[in-house]
Amino acid sequence: MSHPDPYGSTEPRGWDRPAPALPWPDTDLEPGPWRPAPAAPTHPTEPGGYARPGAAPDTYAAPDTYAGPDTYAAPDTYAGPDTYAGPYPNSGRRHDGPGRYDGPPAGDRGRPDGPEHRGPWGEPARDDEYPTAQIAPVRDEPTDQIPAVRDEPEPEPPPGRRGRGRRRASAERPPTTTPTTSRAGRNLPAAIGVGVALGAAVVVPLFFFMPAFLAVLATAVGIGIWEMARAVRRSGAHPPLAPLVAGGVITVGLAWFAGPDALCLGLLVTVLGTMIWRLGDGPGNYQRDLTAATLIAVYVPFLAGFAAMLAAAPGDGHLRVLVTLVAVVLSDTGGYAAGVSFGKHPMAPTISPKKSWEGFAGSVTAAAAGSAVLLWVLFDVAPWWGALFGMAISVSAVLGDLAESMIKRDLGVKDMSNLLPGHGGLMDRLDSILFAVPVAYLLLAVFVPVVS
After folding, report:
1. Cα(393)–Cα(334) distance, rounded to whole angstroms?
2. 133, 204, 283, 401: which is deepest, by most CB within 10 A?
3. Looking at residue 80, what DSSP letter applies?
Protein backbone atom coordinates (compact mmCIF):
# COMPACT_ATOMS: atom_id res chain seq x y z
CA MET A 1 0.00 0.00 0.00
CA SER A 2 1.41 3.25 -1.07
CA HIS A 3 1.41 6.18 1.15
CA PRO A 4 -0.06 9.40 -0.05
CA ASP A 5 2.46 11.95 -1.15
CA PRO A 6 2.43 14.66 1.47
CA TYR A 7 3.65 17.09 -1.14
CA GLY A 8 1.42 15.91 -3.89
CA SER A 9 -1.53 18.06 -2.89
CA THR A 10 -2.61 20.79 -5.20
CA GLU A 11 -2.79 23.23 -2.30
CA PRO A 12 0.13 25.56 -1.69
CA ARG A 13 2.70 24.39 0.81
CA GLY A 14 2.80 25.82 4.37
CA TRP A 15 5.37 28.44 3.57
CA ASP A 16 3.44 29.44 0.45
CA ARG A 17 0.06 29.80 2.09
CA PRO A 18 -1.16 33.35 2.74
CA ALA A 19 -1.41 34.38 6.37
CA PRO A 20 -4.91 34.26 7.84
CA ALA A 21 -6.69 37.50 8.09
CA LEU A 22 -6.67 39.00 11.56
CA PRO A 23 -9.63 40.91 13.03
CA TRP A 24 -7.31 43.91 13.39
CA PRO A 25 -4.36 44.93 11.34
CA ASP A 26 -0.86 44.09 12.63
CA THR A 27 0.74 47.45 13.05
CA ASP A 28 4.23 46.04 13.36
CA LEU A 29 4.13 44.16 10.07
CA GLU A 30 1.58 45.89 7.93
CA PRO A 31 1.55 49.66 8.11
CA GLY A 32 -1.75 51.23 7.46
CA PRO A 33 -3.13 54.66 7.10
CA TRP A 34 -4.23 54.68 10.75
CA ARG A 35 -0.69 54.23 12.15
CA PRO A 36 0.32 57.51 13.82
CA ALA A 37 3.67 59.19 13.46
CA PRO A 38 6.32 58.54 16.11
CA ALA A 39 5.63 60.62 19.18
CA ALA A 40 7.43 61.48 22.40
CA PRO A 41 7.91 58.69 24.93
CA THR A 42 4.91 57.99 27.04
CA HIS A 43 4.78 58.16 30.80
CA PRO A 44 4.82 55.00 32.92
CA THR A 45 1.50 53.69 33.99
CA GLU A 46 0.13 52.79 37.36
CA PRO A 47 -0.79 49.19 38.13
CA GLY A 48 -3.62 48.25 35.84
CA GLY A 49 -3.16 51.27 33.57
CA TYR A 50 -2.36 51.36 29.87
CA ALA A 51 -0.49 53.93 27.86
CA ARG A 52 -1.79 54.21 24.29
CA PRO A 53 0.99 54.03 21.69
CA GLY A 54 1.70 57.38 20.18
CA ALA A 55 -0.18 59.30 22.84
CA ALA A 56 1.08 62.77 23.57
CA PRO A 57 2.78 63.61 26.88
CA ASP A 58 0.49 64.06 29.86
CA THR A 59 -2.02 61.72 28.24
CA TYR A 60 -3.04 58.90 30.48
CA ALA A 61 -5.52 56.13 30.16
CA ALA A 62 -6.44 54.55 33.49
CA PRO A 63 -7.73 50.96 33.81
CA ASP A 64 -8.85 50.04 30.30
CA THR A 65 -12.30 49.15 29.12
CA TYR A 66 -12.32 47.28 25.88
CA ALA A 67 -15.25 48.10 23.59
CA GLY A 68 -14.02 46.88 20.25
CA PRO A 69 -11.16 47.19 17.86
CA ASP A 70 -9.24 50.37 18.34
CA THR A 71 -11.85 51.64 20.78
CA TYR A 72 -10.93 52.37 24.38
CA ALA A 73 -12.96 54.05 27.04
CA ALA A 74 -11.42 55.02 30.39
CA PRO A 75 -12.69 56.91 33.43
CA ASP A 76 -10.10 59.60 32.82
CA THR A 77 -10.55 62.02 29.99
CA TYR A 78 -7.75 64.15 28.60
CA ALA A 79 -8.47 67.12 26.43
CA GLY A 80 -4.90 68.18 25.69
CA PRO A 81 -1.40 68.37 27.00
CA ASP A 82 -2.29 70.96 29.61
CA THR A 83 -5.83 69.92 30.34
CA TYR A 84 -6.53 67.27 32.89
CA ALA A 85 -9.75 66.02 34.36
CA GLY A 86 -9.57 62.96 36.54
CA PRO A 87 -9.37 61.65 40.03
CA TYR A 88 -6.25 63.65 40.97
CA PRO A 89 -7.51 66.94 42.40
CA ASN A 90 -4.21 67.67 44.18
CA SER A 91 -1.98 67.49 41.16
CA GLY A 92 -0.78 71.05 41.75
CA ARG A 93 -2.17 72.61 38.52
CA ARG A 94 -5.31 74.51 37.79
CA HIS A 95 -7.00 73.84 34.45
CA ASP A 96 -10.02 75.73 33.23
CA GLY A 97 -10.25 74.46 29.72
CA PRO A 98 -8.44 72.97 26.81
CA GLY A 99 -5.00 74.48 26.31
CA ARG A 100 -5.38 76.94 29.15
CA TYR A 101 -3.04 77.12 32.15
CA ASP A 102 -3.27 79.82 34.77
CA GLY A 103 -0.09 78.93 36.74
CA PRO A 104 0.30 77.16 40.05
CA PRO A 105 -2.19 77.77 42.83
CA ALA A 106 -1.41 80.20 45.60
CA GLY A 107 -0.17 77.49 47.90
CA ASP A 108 2.29 76.22 45.28
CA ARG A 109 4.03 79.48 44.52
CA GLY A 110 7.71 79.46 45.29
CA ARG A 111 8.17 75.73 44.65
CA PRO A 112 10.73 74.54 42.12
CA ASP A 113 8.76 74.14 38.91
CA GLY A 114 11.44 73.23 36.36
CA PRO A 115 11.39 69.93 34.44
CA GLU A 116 13.94 68.47 36.80
CA HIS A 117 11.68 69.21 39.81
CA ARG A 118 8.49 67.64 38.48
CA GLY A 119 6.99 64.32 39.42
CA PRO A 120 6.43 61.37 37.05
CA TRP A 121 3.10 62.88 35.88
CA GLY A 122 4.35 66.42 35.37
CA GLU A 123 3.01 67.69 38.70
CA PRO A 124 5.12 70.16 40.72
CA ALA A 125 7.30 68.84 43.52
CA ARG A 126 5.98 68.71 47.06
CA ASP A 127 7.42 70.84 49.83
CA ASP A 128 8.68 67.88 51.79
CA GLU A 129 10.73 66.67 48.81
CA TYR A 130 12.57 69.97 48.33
CA PRO A 131 12.62 71.68 51.75
CA THR A 132 15.25 74.19 50.68
CA ALA A 133 12.84 75.70 48.20
CA GLN A 134 11.24 77.72 51.01
CA ILE A 135 14.54 79.20 52.24
CA ALA A 136 14.94 82.82 51.34
CA PRO A 137 17.89 83.49 48.99
CA VAL A 138 21.03 85.00 50.44
CA ARG A 139 21.73 88.45 49.09
CA ASP A 140 25.23 89.62 48.46
CA GLU A 141 25.66 92.53 50.83
CA PRO A 142 28.64 94.84 50.72
CA THR A 143 31.28 94.01 53.28
CA ASP A 144 31.47 97.57 54.52
CA GLN A 145 28.04 97.13 56.11
CA ILE A 146 29.08 94.08 58.14
CA PRO A 147 30.00 95.17 61.68
CA ALA A 148 33.55 94.36 62.71
CA VAL A 149 34.10 91.79 65.46
CA ARG A 150 35.53 93.44 68.53
CA ASP A 151 37.43 91.69 71.28
CA GLU A 152 35.14 92.28 74.20
CA PRO A 153 35.89 90.97 77.68
CA GLU A 154 33.95 87.96 78.87
CA PRO A 155 30.89 89.11 80.78
CA GLU A 156 30.95 88.53 84.48
CA PRO A 157 28.61 85.79 85.72
CA PRO A 158 25.51 87.06 87.50
CA PRO A 159 25.55 87.17 91.29
CA GLY A 160 25.02 83.80 92.87
CA ARG A 161 26.65 81.84 90.05
CA ARG A 162 30.32 80.85 89.82
CA GLY A 163 32.32 80.98 86.61
CA ARG A 164 33.60 78.01 84.70
CA GLY A 165 36.32 75.99 86.39
CA ARG A 166 35.75 77.50 89.82
CA ARG A 167 34.71 75.52 92.85
CA ARG A 168 32.31 77.07 95.27
CA ALA A 169 34.10 77.86 98.52
CA SER A 170 32.45 77.55 101.90
CA ALA A 171 33.38 77.29 105.53
CA GLU A 172 33.92 73.52 105.14
CA ARG A 173 35.66 73.82 101.74
CA PRO A 174 38.04 76.79 101.58
CA PRO A 175 39.07 78.08 98.14
CA THR A 176 41.78 76.08 96.41
CA THR A 177 45.15 77.78 96.24
CA THR A 178 48.17 76.65 94.24
CA PRO A 179 51.13 75.88 96.53
CA THR A 180 54.09 78.14 95.95
CA THR A 181 57.18 76.44 94.59
CA SER A 182 60.75 77.65 94.70
CA ARG A 183 63.24 77.79 91.86
CA ALA A 184 64.50 74.38 92.89
CA GLY A 185 61.07 72.87 92.26
CA ARG A 186 60.07 72.34 95.90
CA ASN A 187 57.12 73.49 97.91
CA LEU A 188 59.33 75.48 100.27
CA PRO A 189 56.94 75.96 103.23
CA ALA A 190 56.01 72.28 103.24
CA ALA A 191 59.65 71.25 102.88
CA ILE A 192 60.70 73.38 105.85
CA GLY A 193 57.87 72.11 108.03
CA VAL A 194 58.54 68.44 107.22
CA GLY A 195 62.28 68.95 107.74
CA VAL A 196 61.73 70.42 111.20
CA ALA A 197 59.39 67.54 112.14
CA LEU A 198 61.93 64.94 111.01
CA GLY A 199 64.70 66.67 112.94
CA ALA A 200 62.60 66.70 116.09
CA ALA A 201 61.75 62.99 115.65
CA VAL A 202 65.49 62.22 115.61
CA VAL A 203 66.95 64.67 118.11
CA VAL A 204 64.38 64.36 120.91
CA PRO A 205 64.78 60.59 121.48
CA LEU A 206 68.52 60.90 120.83
CA PHE A 207 68.98 63.14 123.87
CA PHE A 208 66.24 61.93 126.16
CA PHE A 209 65.67 58.21 125.51
CA MET A 210 68.25 56.39 123.43
CA PRO A 211 66.27 53.15 122.85
CA ALA A 212 63.56 55.28 121.20
CA PHE A 213 66.16 56.48 118.70
CA LEU A 214 66.84 52.84 117.79
CA ALA A 215 63.11 52.36 117.17
CA VAL A 216 63.03 55.47 114.97
CA LEU A 217 66.04 54.20 113.02
CA ALA A 218 64.54 50.74 112.52
CA THR A 219 61.27 52.31 111.33
CA ALA A 220 63.11 54.52 108.84
CA VAL A 221 64.99 51.49 107.51
CA GLY A 222 61.76 49.55 107.00
CA ILE A 223 60.12 52.46 105.13
CA GLY A 224 63.22 52.95 103.00
CA ILE A 225 63.30 49.27 102.01
CA TRP A 226 59.62 49.42 101.05
CA GLU A 227 60.17 52.51 98.88
CA MET A 228 63.15 50.97 97.12
CA ALA A 229 61.40 47.65 96.47
CA ARG A 230 58.37 49.53 95.14
CA ALA A 231 60.54 51.65 92.84
CA VAL A 232 62.60 48.81 91.33
CA ARG A 233 59.42 47.00 90.27
CA ARG A 234 59.22 49.48 87.41
CA SER A 235 62.27 47.76 85.89
CA GLY A 236 60.63 44.33 86.07
CA ALA A 237 62.44 43.13 89.19
CA HIS A 238 60.39 41.84 92.13
CA PRO A 239 62.59 41.47 95.20
CA PRO A 240 60.83 39.77 98.14
CA LEU A 241 59.80 42.44 100.59
CA ALA A 242 59.25 40.41 103.78
CA PRO A 243 62.82 39.00 104.18
CA LEU A 244 64.32 42.36 103.24
CA VAL A 245 62.40 44.28 105.90
CA ALA A 246 62.99 41.64 108.57
CA GLY A 247 66.68 41.32 107.71
CA GLY A 248 67.11 45.11 107.62
CA VAL A 249 65.71 45.57 111.11
CA ILE A 250 67.88 42.70 112.42
CA THR A 251 70.96 44.23 110.79
CA VAL A 252 70.44 47.58 112.49
CA GLY A 253 69.85 45.88 115.84
CA LEU A 254 73.02 43.78 115.53
CA ALA A 255 75.09 46.87 114.70
CA TRP A 256 73.65 48.66 117.74
CA PHE A 257 74.46 45.92 120.20
CA ALA A 258 77.54 44.20 118.73
CA GLY A 259 79.39 46.61 116.45
CA PRO A 260 80.93 46.27 112.99
CA ASP A 261 81.28 42.49 112.94
CA ALA A 262 77.62 42.00 113.74
CA LEU A 263 76.73 44.55 111.05
CA CYS A 264 78.45 42.46 108.37
CA LEU A 265 76.80 39.32 109.75
CA GLY A 266 73.39 40.97 109.54
CA LEU A 267 73.99 41.87 105.89
CA LEU A 268 74.97 38.28 105.11
CA VAL A 269 71.90 36.89 106.87
CA THR A 270 69.63 39.30 104.98
CA VAL A 271 71.01 38.32 101.56
CA LEU A 272 70.87 34.57 102.31
CA GLY A 273 67.35 34.84 103.66
CA THR A 274 66.27 36.69 100.54
CA MET A 275 67.80 34.00 98.31
CA ILE A 276 65.98 31.20 100.14
CA TRP A 277 62.69 33.08 100.21
CA ARG A 278 62.89 33.79 96.47
CA LEU A 279 63.22 30.07 95.64
CA GLY A 280 59.53 29.67 96.33
CA ASP A 281 58.63 31.78 93.28
CA GLY A 282 60.42 29.58 90.76
CA PRO A 283 63.49 30.13 88.58
CA GLY A 284 61.98 32.86 86.40
CA ASN A 285 63.97 36.14 86.70
CA TYR A 286 65.73 34.77 89.78
CA GLN A 287 69.05 36.50 89.08
CA ARG A 288 67.42 39.88 88.44
CA ASP A 289 65.31 39.74 91.60
CA LEU A 290 68.26 38.66 93.74
CA THR A 291 70.45 41.45 92.34
CA ALA A 292 67.82 44.06 93.20
CA ALA A 293 67.41 42.59 96.69
CA THR A 294 71.19 42.69 97.32
CA LEU A 295 71.35 46.33 96.19
CA ILE A 296 68.54 47.27 98.59
CA ALA A 297 70.13 45.33 101.49
CA VAL A 298 73.47 47.11 101.07
CA TYR A 299 72.07 50.55 100.30
CA VAL A 300 69.55 50.87 103.14
CA PRO A 301 70.10 48.67 106.23
CA PHE A 302 73.86 48.14 105.92
CA LEU A 303 74.66 51.86 105.59
CA ALA A 304 72.08 52.74 108.26
CA GLY A 305 73.87 50.35 110.60
CA PHE A 306 76.76 52.86 110.85
CA ALA A 307 74.31 55.40 112.29
CA ALA A 308 73.37 52.81 114.94
CA MET A 309 77.07 52.29 115.79
CA LEU A 310 77.58 56.06 116.04
CA ALA A 311 74.70 56.36 118.51
CA ALA A 312 75.88 53.30 120.46
CA ALA A 313 79.27 54.85 121.25
CA PRO A 314 79.57 55.06 125.05
CA GLY A 315 79.47 58.51 126.60
CA ASP A 316 79.14 60.74 123.52
CA GLY A 317 77.18 58.70 120.98
CA HIS A 318 74.39 61.23 120.80
CA LEU A 319 76.91 64.02 120.06
CA ARG A 320 78.51 62.02 117.26
CA VAL A 321 75.14 61.56 115.59
CA LEU A 322 74.34 65.23 116.12
CA VAL A 323 77.50 66.61 114.44
CA THR A 324 77.00 64.22 111.49
CA LEU A 325 73.39 65.30 110.97
CA VAL A 326 74.29 68.99 111.33
CA ALA A 327 77.05 68.64 108.74
CA VAL A 328 74.63 66.99 106.29
CA VAL A 329 71.98 69.64 106.87
CA LEU A 330 74.52 72.45 106.41
CA SER A 331 75.74 70.83 103.19
CA ASP A 332 72.21 70.53 101.82
CA THR A 333 71.23 74.06 102.87
CA GLY A 334 74.43 75.70 101.61
CA GLY A 335 74.19 73.90 98.28
CA TYR A 336 70.54 74.87 97.86
CA ALA A 337 71.15 78.55 98.62
CA ALA A 338 74.26 78.83 96.44
CA GLY A 339 72.71 76.88 93.58
CA VAL A 340 69.56 79.00 93.50
CA SER A 341 71.49 82.26 93.74
CA PHE A 342 74.58 81.62 91.63
CA GLY A 343 74.13 78.26 89.89
CA LYS A 344 75.10 78.52 86.19
CA HIS A 345 77.39 75.56 85.47
CA PRO A 346 75.67 72.14 85.71
CA MET A 347 77.57 69.59 87.72
CA ALA A 348 75.98 66.40 86.32
CA PRO A 349 73.32 67.41 83.77
CA THR A 350 72.52 63.85 82.73
CA ILE A 351 71.96 62.72 86.34
CA SER A 352 70.74 65.76 88.27
CA PRO A 353 70.25 68.86 86.06
CA LYS A 354 69.59 71.17 89.00
CA LYS A 355 72.93 70.56 90.70
CA SER A 356 75.64 73.04 89.80
CA TRP A 357 79.27 73.52 90.66
CA GLU A 358 78.39 76.74 92.43
CA GLY A 359 75.96 74.81 94.60
CA PHE A 360 78.60 72.17 95.33
CA ALA A 361 81.01 74.88 96.45
CA GLY A 362 78.31 76.29 98.71
CA SER A 363 77.73 72.83 100.21
CA VAL A 364 81.39 72.24 100.99
CA THR A 365 81.88 75.74 102.41
CA ALA A 366 78.87 75.63 104.70
CA ALA A 367 79.61 72.12 106.00
CA ALA A 368 83.28 72.89 106.59
CA ALA A 369 82.60 76.11 108.48
CA GLY A 370 79.85 74.64 110.63
CA SER A 371 81.74 71.41 111.43
CA ALA A 372 84.91 73.33 112.37
CA VAL A 373 83.03 75.27 114.98
CA LEU A 374 80.90 72.37 116.20
CA LEU A 375 83.71 69.83 116.66
CA TRP A 376 85.87 72.41 118.39
CA VAL A 377 83.08 73.23 120.87
CA LEU A 378 81.79 69.70 121.50
CA PHE A 379 84.89 67.52 121.20
CA ASP A 380 87.77 70.00 121.58
CA VAL A 381 89.08 69.13 118.11
CA ALA A 382 91.21 71.61 116.20
CA PRO A 383 89.18 73.72 113.74
CA TRP A 384 91.14 72.55 110.69
CA TRP A 385 90.30 68.94 111.56
CA GLY A 386 86.72 69.93 112.00
CA ALA A 387 86.75 71.68 108.61
CA LEU A 388 88.21 68.54 107.02
CA PHE A 389 85.46 66.50 108.63
CA GLY A 390 82.83 68.87 107.25
CA MET A 391 84.30 68.77 103.74
CA ALA A 392 84.36 64.96 103.73
CA ILE A 393 80.78 64.78 104.95
CA SER A 394 79.68 67.28 102.28
CA VAL A 395 81.35 65.36 99.44
CA SER A 396 79.89 62.04 100.58
CA ALA A 397 76.43 63.60 100.97
CA VAL A 398 76.53 65.03 97.44
CA LEU A 399 77.69 61.67 96.07
CA GLY A 400 74.84 59.94 97.87
CA ASP A 401 72.37 62.40 96.40
CA LEU A 402 73.77 61.83 92.90
CA ALA A 403 73.71 58.05 93.36
CA GLU A 404 70.02 58.04 94.22
CA SER A 405 69.30 60.50 91.40
CA MET A 406 70.96 58.08 88.99
CA ILE A 407 68.88 55.19 90.33
CA LYS A 408 65.67 57.19 90.00
CA ARG A 409 66.55 58.33 86.49
CA ASP A 410 67.31 54.76 85.50
CA LEU A 411 63.97 53.61 86.91
CA GLY A 412 62.09 56.54 85.37
CA VAL A 413 60.71 58.00 88.63
CA LYS A 414 60.92 61.52 90.01
CA ASP A 415 60.61 60.63 93.71
CA MET A 416 60.74 57.34 95.54
CA SER A 417 57.26 58.02 96.89
CA ASN A 418 54.93 60.86 97.92
CA LEU A 419 55.15 60.15 101.63
CA LEU A 420 56.66 63.50 102.67
CA PRO A 421 55.18 66.72 101.20
CA GLY A 422 57.87 68.93 99.70
CA HIS A 423 60.47 66.15 99.93
CA GLY A 424 59.02 63.18 98.05
CA GLY A 425 59.83 59.92 99.79
CA LEU A 426 61.78 59.19 102.93
CA MET A 427 64.67 57.85 100.83
CA ASP A 428 64.90 61.26 99.15
CA ARG A 429 65.96 62.60 102.58
CA LEU A 430 68.04 59.60 103.66
CA ASP A 431 70.12 59.41 100.48
CA SER A 432 72.67 61.98 101.67
CA ILE A 433 72.72 60.71 105.26
CA LEU A 434 73.25 57.06 104.31
CA PHE A 435 76.44 57.90 102.40
CA ALA A 436 77.62 60.30 105.11
CA VAL A 437 77.35 58.12 108.24
CA PRO A 438 80.08 55.56 107.27
CA VAL A 439 82.50 58.45 106.59
CA ALA A 440 81.53 60.14 109.85
CA TYR A 441 82.01 56.88 111.79
CA LEU A 442 85.51 56.37 110.42
CA LEU A 443 86.69 60.01 110.82
CA LEU A 444 85.28 60.44 114.30
CA ALA A 445 86.93 57.18 115.35
CA VAL A 446 90.24 58.87 114.42
CA PHE A 447 89.59 62.45 115.56
CA VAL A 448 87.66 61.58 118.70
CA PRO A 449 88.78 58.20 120.05
CA VAL A 450 86.10 56.22 121.79
CA VAL A 451 86.50 56.19 125.56
CA SER A 452 85.77 52.67 126.78
Report:
1. 13
2. 401
3. E
- How does pLDDT run along the chain (452 residues), one tens digit per residue? 445 555 555 555 555 555 555 555 554 544 445 555 555 554 444 444 444 454 444 444 444 445 444 444 445 544 444 444 444 444 444 444 444 555 555 444 444 555 555 555 555 555 555 455 555 555 555 555 555 555 555 556 555 555 555 555 555 555 555 444 445 455 667 777 777 888 888 889 988 888 899 999 999 999 999 999 999 998 889 999 999 999 999 999 999 999 999 999 999 999 999 999 999 888 888 999 999 999 999 999 999 999 999 999 988 899 999 999 999 999 999 998 998 888 888 988 888 888 899 999 999 999 999 999 999 999 999 999 999 999 999 999 999 999 998 998 888 888 888 887 766 788 888 889 999 999 999 999 999 876 54
In 10 A of CB 225, how many CB atoms? 27
CA angle 242, 244, 246 (to 5 degrees): 70
Q: Quote the CA–CA distance of 282 and 240 in Å, as a whole number.
A: 13
Judged by DSSP in three states, 85 sits in: strand
Question: Where are the domains positioned within the chain?
Answer: 65-117, 194-447
Task: List Cα–Cα distances, 51 to 47, 62, 65, 84, in angstroms.
Answer: 11, 8, 13, 15
Say what the pTM is. 0.59
Q: Which residues contact 309 (CB under 8 A, 6 or more apart)?
A: 255, 256, 259, 260, 263, 441
First to last CA, the chain: 162
CA distances from 269 to 170, 249, 381 (A): 57, 11, 38
